[in-house]
Amino acid sequence: MKLRRKEQLVEFIEKYKLPITVEWLNIATTHDSYHIINPVTPSNERLEALGDSVLDLLSFDWLYDHFQGNEGTYTQLRSEIVSNSVLGKLGKKIGLNSLILKGEGVSIHDKQLADAIEAIFGSIFKYNQEIGFNSYDFCKQSFEFLFHDILKDMKNRDYVPNLTNKNQNNPKNQLSEYILKNKLPSSTLKLISEMGPPHKKVFTSQYSIQLSSHSIISAKGEASTIKQSEKIAAKKLLKRLKYQKQDPKY
After folding, report:
1. How far apart are CA 52 and CA 56, in angstroms?
2. Model-level pTM?
3. Which of 27, 122, 139, 199 could form a disulfide with 50 if both were Cys (CB 3.0 to 4.6 A apart)?
4. Residue 159 lies in a domain
5. Alpha-carbon distance values, 203 to 167, 219, 230 (Å)
6. What range defines the domain where residue 36 resides?
7. 190 SS3 class
8. Neighbours of 173 (CB within 10 A)
9. Over the stretch 114-162, which tens digit does the pLDDT of each residue have?
């Protein structure tokens, strides 16, 4: 490794408080196009695959602690943290593009920057695991440090995920959005009955939300399919929650 390259990596590690060595960061910032012409230096592909899963866990863990919602809500919010465009923007902000080793004629775009960030988290996980430290704790510290501004914006009380038009028309997603925006407890959904002959089933689903130790609001939905009964129940519960907000005595 050339001296200038090593100095750049050391400076980056110190600036962003990364719990890894120069050797690990060197691999994390080596694009496959560089590895092809310089086989001695491993590419970051394996670390990128690992880091992708690590960032998924970190983002879901953080969202679980800060937002109420269901799986769909968390999945949508996760994309606001670790999508290629968000990671690419973060990579540019921290100057990662100047560290990536690449083959001649290869351009660095959001995807390459995102891969490098994922590889860095893969490196943090593996390096600390190999020396016997708690890998997840170190990954979490780096996540909260590097993603500080992104996470801070998301904690804004009025934050609502950018749902697609398809999701906006789904009562279940509308309910999740309302719960998230108003910081209400998570709702529960269950199938409470299934009646009728096989060719003419009637399913009844129920959504419930416990607003306090003395207040539970619920709504039922009946339909010929489970999914449709859930949507009807969600629509009814959303209507009741909005009415209850206007009239607390409701």
Report:
1. 6
2. 0.66
3. 122
4. no
5. 23, 14, 9
6. 3-154
7. strand
8. 22
9. 999 999 999 999 999 999 999 999 999 999 999 999 998 887 745 555 4
